Amino acid sequence: MSALIEFKNVYKIYQSGEVEIRALDDASFTVEKGELCVVVGQSGAGKTTLLNIMGGIDRATSGEVSLDGAYVTDFNKKQLTEYRRHDIGFVFQFYNLIQNLTALENVEVATEMGEDPLDPAETLASVGLSHRLKNFPAQLSGGEQQRVAIARALAKNPKLLLCDEPTGALDDETGKHILELLTERAKNTDMTVMLITHNSVIAEIANRVIRMKSGKITGVDTNEHPKPVSEIEW
Amino acid sequence: MVRSPTIRKLIFRDLRSSPGRFLAIFVMFALGAGFFAGLGNTAPSMRASADIYLHETRLADFRLISTYGWDSADVIEAAKLPGVESVMPRYSFTAKVARPDGIPSVFSIKSLPLNTSENSTSYLNRLVLKDGRLPAKSGECAVDAAYAIEIGDELTITDEIEGAEYGMIKTKTVTVVGKVDSPEYISYARGNSSLGNGEIDSFLYLPPAGMDSAYYTEICILMEETHGISAFSDAYKDIVDSSKDLLEDFALERAELRHRSIREEAEQYLRDGEADIATSEEELRDGQAEVDDGRAEANREFAKAKSDLQAGEQKLADGRAEYDKNATGLADGEAALSDAKAQVEQMKLLLQTLPPGPEHDGLAAQIAGAEAQIAQNETQLTMGRAALEEAAATLDAAAAELSRGWASYDSERWAAFSKLDDAQAEIDDGRTKIEDAKTDIAEARQDLDEMDEPEAFIFEREDNAAYSTFEPNAARIASLAATIPPFMFVIAALVCLTTMARLVEEHRTRIGTLKALGYGRGAIISIYLFYAIVCSLAGSVAGILAGINIFPSTIWFAYEGLYALGEFKLELRPAICLIALVAGVIVTVAATFASCYNEQRSPAAVLMRPRAPKAGKRVLLERATIIWKHLNFNQKVTMRNIFRYKKRLIMTIVGIAGCSALLLASFGIEDSIRSMADRQYEDIYHYNIYVMLKDDADPGIVKNELAVFGSRDSLSVSETSCTLLNGEINTNGFNTISAFVPEDAAELNEYILLRTMKGEPLSIENLSSGDSGAELPGVFLTDKLAAHMDVGPGDSLTIEDSDGNTAEAVVSGVTLNYVGAYVYMNSEAYENVFSKPPQYKSILMKLNSEYVDRVDEAVTEIMAIDGVEFAYSSSAMRELVFDIAENMDVVIMFIQQMSVMLAIVVLYNLININITEREREIATLKVLGYRPREVFLYFFSESSILTFIGALFGLLGGIVLHRQVINAIASEDASFPLRLEWGVLLLIAMTVTMLICVVVNTIMQPKLRRIDPVSSLKSPE
């Protein structure tokens, strides 16, 4: 079985006058299906760029990125949209819920367009929010909002769940709950989760850890026995 | 204002960094100020341009006309009047003029002064030469430049002439040597005449050498004081009004003088005639006496001759009697002789028988004696016979003599008497002639006695229909200038408010920082004030510059279809531009202050933190479960979004409402203006032809002649001009108000449909006549008139006739009307108001099927009827009114374009703000996989629903705005319909608004597309 995700010599170069900034510098790695993959690095290490390219919202300057055999780097704009629509679930650091929609409706935004969506209410129930369906984001705590965001990402039944510092805006306790939810998902539903964080502690819960520094991948570790979330501390 | 150079730098950087925002405010104020200053300067410029033209062409302030014309003494006297600058006498008349192709047209013909040089003061109403030259000698003319004829063509003035005698024109066939514009014809209407179909087609000017007459037909006068004063100003009106009295006195006096001298001349002539008659009579009398004497003499002579002849006759008869007696005597003698001879024979026989003897002897003796006797007798008888024969000859001669005498008597007598008879006949003839001459003189004297009192007329510029429409047209634009732009400023304020609110919102952190750094509240507000003022001032200045350069000249050129007033001259009213600027600044300051104020009150710490996202909320619609359930998800989201930001919702709705109101109003105004003529001349006036009778015409006779044209009996009407008074309010500003009285009240609605504003029919039949003392006479007023007089049904007012008599009347109804101002009443009411019966001098008629499609022919034929002064068709009037109204089109077009631009800017700005505010949301949706089309629809459905709601409100507002504008542009005697096919207009306005929404959204699509999904990852501001 080939890898679900494959990065092959991916470069992302920003040209700013005479200065050339390499946000990604020859990044190569693979991620297997069903894994929880954590990308760790300091800010500016290039992990967000990596995530953006993976998520189809940014393009690599060169190199190949594939998901499930499809070469994302070859996609045109329209294909990228469809790719985001069907294959990617995105979880934002600041949740990015639509303030004007209830929790359920925020999930529905995603399921409305999915090809094989899950039931929005059930999905919300599965992230522990069955009692919050009709609440607006402003009426929810940060953790709850992030759960809604995760439910929104999961509900369209994507091939890959991309999480951008999902705990960054949350306190430790709530952050752990979110991480628990994500690891549980990866473990129990065969969902591949890719999570970026600057917090290396979180790497301990991953099946695979990708370390980055200055746009370069400094190491890819596989972790046969990731720690349960409850055991980590930061 | 902003003292820190750094902050100022910041502001300019802000301006550069968000051109959309700058443009929104800029354009809004450019539109508002441009429209205001542009339209505001249009009326002054129109007036100024017209004034320059009128001044350069030295258009006369007055024209004096008298029924007996003017002679050169009158002209000299007129020039001496105080305040008169120049006078120009001339000939002016109308005539049918035949073109080379034989088609006759009615021309107004006028003469030029002798000296037409530039510095000739007495050259008034100067012609503007378009081609060729001015006519110099008899047989040349200059023609209306608008008339289709070439220089060198010939025109023949026919004897169908009015206002002058045919003999006054020296050369009847004139060659066109020049084509000209005349300041007397500033509109393309050439006026009316009683010739042809009543319309004057064109005009031409003759040189003075082309005319030959002892008197002029009119004197044109230019006043000193009117120099340098606008002809449309009150000052001009004052001067004209005060000079008019003077001129009226002068004209009447001179006309009377002229009348008297004409009269005296005629009387002298008559007196000479009478003297001649007296001489002739004297001669006749002498002649008669001679004839009479001759006749007596002749009679005497012939009587004597006759008696002589008769005496001769008598003598002859006597002679014949004598002769007859002698003849008888002779015959007796002869008979006795033959008896005696027979006796002698017998005696001789006896003698033979007798023996001789005594007896015998005795017998023989006896016989011898007898025979002697017989012989003697025979001699005697022979002598007698001879005498008798002689007498017979004498008698015959006498008879011949006599008959000759008779013959000569007869012939002489005949000759003598026929001579006398001839003389008598001659005398009789002379007598008849004298009688005739006497009758002639008597008639002439009677004519002279009955000679019309002289009448003098004074025409001022206002009497020229074109002038009287020019000013209201200019005024109407001024009214529009006052009505529409404030509305635009409100919308501009709104745009400014939303834009600035958004800017302040975006600068929350900066404001907080500045505050934390120690900037005072005022200092920070002033930053934004400065920002906004820079935008709006730039917009206002650009708008004003564009507005004053575009609007006045464009409108002027559009009006050139109606008026020929020379070159356009921009007359700037700095005050109007200043008001536009100041209004813009005030609006901006107010809007900016309002948007900054709340933000300013928060402490720095709060401002530095991002504003808590506004909580989502259920909208009211969700309570209506049935509807809500049927909405799909996107619709639900749209609904929620719409109602999420109430402030923006209101702003958007109000902004779009404003634009669509303006749009609808402009469509409505266009429709009102275009339909006014139809409403008046088709919906209200149902007659085809209006016939005006001559003063001495018998309406009955004319009506009989009109019968062949009509579909029913025509209606005689009386129109009297009057004035209305109600306390302080009067109708002095009105052109004319007619007291309108039909002869047959029941028939009126067949010709003129009187209806209330609500459409209920009004009938003047049932109006109170005012007979019963307690009741006042009832009248109907036309709506604008009633509004001006501030009266409604049941109110009373005073009617004053032209002689100053006043009477009270009660308003029984107000009738819908668009053109003109009328007081309708029945004849009884008229008599009670004016204390005299109405004079029916006009006739309304409906054409029958034969003529209804040949209205112009009918008019021409009716004009030819004796006693008809003038006739016109309501269709011709409709066209005229339509043409005048149509010239508002260009202004309306501007308003429409402005409203469309406003709508575009408002929508663009609002959508732009909406997008910028929700960039993160859009980025998120994109990350979630929304296709560009879905993102577009997500926004589009929102803005289109808002646009729709806004347009709905706007359409309501549009009807109100329309009403306001219509009221503003209505003059006292012309108003425009308010009731329109609103359904269609609403649909159009709605469609246009929605179309603009689609267009703007489409324009915005790239902006939506450009939003980078990556920006969703940023922390919320």
Topology (elements, then pairings):
The complex is a heterodimer of chains A (234) and B (1021).
Chain A: E1 5-16, E2 19-31, E3 36-40, H1 47-55, E4 62-67, E5 70-71, H2 77-87, E6 88-91, H3 103-111, H4 120-126, H5 142-155, E7 160-164, H6 172-189, E8 192-197, E9 208-213, E10 216-222
Parallel strand pairs in A: 3-8, 3-9, 6-7, 7-8
Antiparallel strand pairs in A: 1-2, 1-4, 4-5, 9-10
Helix pairs in contact in A: 3-4, 3-5, 4-5, 5-6
Chain B: H1 5-17, H2 19-56, E1 62-70, H3 72-80, E2 84-90, E3 92-98, E4 104-111, E5 128-132, E6 140-144, E7 154-162, E8 173-181, E9 202-206, E10 216-223, H4 234-353, H5 358-450, E11 456-460, H6 465-506, H7 508-516, H8 521-559, H9 574-601, H10 604-608, H11 620-623, H12 625-630, H13 633-644, H14 646-684, E12 689-693, H15 699-706, E13 715-726, E14 729-730, E15 737-742, H16 748-751, E16 778-782, H17 783-789, E17 796-801, E18 806-815, E19 821-824, H18 827-834, E20 842-845, H19 855-863, E21 868-873, H20 874-886, H21 889-917, H22 919-927, H23 932-969, H24 982-1010
Parallel strand pairs in B: 4-9, 6-8, 15-19, 16-18
Antiparallel strand pairs in B: 1-10, 1-11, 2-10, 3-4, 3-7, 5-8, 6-9, 7-8, 12-20, 12-21, 13-14, 13-15, 13-17, 13-20, 16-19, 17-18
Helix pairs in contact in B: 1-8, 2-6, 2-8, 2-9, 2-21, 4-5, 6-9, 6-14, 6-21, 6-23, 8-9, 13-23, 14-20, 14-21, 14-23, 14-24, 21-24, 23-24
Summarize model confidence as the mean pLDDT of chain B. Answer: 84
The tally of domains of chain A stands at: 1
Named CATH topology of chain A? Rossmann fold
Indicate the mean pLDDT of chain A: 88
The oligomeric state of the chains shown is: heterodimer
Q: Give a count of the beta strands of chain A, DSSP E runs of length 2 or more.
A: 10
Helix amount of chain B, in percent? Answer: 55-70%
CATH homologous superfamily caption of chain A = P-loop containing nucleotide triphosphate hydrolases
Class computed from helices, strands and strand pairing of chain B: alpha+beta
CATH class of chain A: Alpha Beta
Count of helix runs of chain A = 6
User: How many β-strands of chain B, per DSSP?
Assistant: 21
